[in-house]
């Protein structure tokens, strides 16, 4: 049975733990996995441009001995020049897996449904599960066991927040998001997270006060206030998110041992200050590196079964 990696929801806590352990092992022993997918080809479909996701998938597939084919919206005009169904049926005849970075989450889901080969969600407007695996690898490296520790997300209840909330619930880590009214994560994500949290012992909270959320945090995380495709909302968002900046004062409310995380790219001086980004508590470059190792683990797992 082929597996897809479309949402954190689809994977059990035990499976996610295996992915994290495999990511760590690939990072520690890269030679062990060299040539492990030799002769395999992976299509990278990117409607949205990217630095980290593009480079880490491309390099990761190469390090595992595979070959990647990069396709932009200009190349295939997904769903317009040709239907998603027909693109999928073509690709499954040539490729061993497909990685999709797109706007509409349904496009990713449809490709998974139409294709007999694995499909990886490399970001949609709804979720960013690859980011969550890399982030929790990073958190584990710096904090050790995550169960009952506190993960705090400050800012927009967006796709990254959704995956991090679900991941926290799956591994038993308490999660609090502080966001302006009207920018909360989708209710279905919150409800699913709380349901998973009851099984794992994780407490899931949606708050509007960043200072309340940040108290005694083990992880303080933020993301841009204006994501790609939201440029028309910039003026309103900049006003609505005033008071949600992660700065030294906010970090002082967290534990002294707390780490600062950001999925990048960061808008320095807006959602986070330089003195936090460049502080000893910041692990943003570890996060960026760990996208490579975690995505290698995802591709390896799906192709090797």
Q: What would you note in describing this structure?
A:
The protein has 305 residues and is of the alpha/beta class. The protein has two domains: 8-128 and 288-304, Rossmann fold; 131-284, 3-Layer(aba) Sandwich (Rossmann fold). 45% of the residues lie in helices and 14% in strands. The strands form two sheets. A five-stranded parallel sheet has the order 7-6-5-8-9. It has a four-stranded parallel sheet with strand order 2-1-3-4, with helices on both faces. Helix 8 (187-200) links the parallel strand 6 (174-178) and strand 7. It is globular and about 55 Å long. 47% of the residues are buried.
Give a topology summary.
Elements lengths: L12 H16 L12 E6 L5 H12 L3 E6 H4 L7 H11 L2 E5 L3 H10 L4 E5 L5 H15 L6 E5 L4 H13 L2 E5 L8 H14 L3 E4 L2 H5 L4 E4 L11 H7 L7 H4 L7 E4 L11 H4 L6 H21 L1
Parallel strand pairs: 1-2, 1-3, 3-4, 5-6, 5-8, 6-7, 8-9
Helix pairs in contact: 1-6, 1-13, 2-13, 4-5, 6-7, 6-13, 7-8
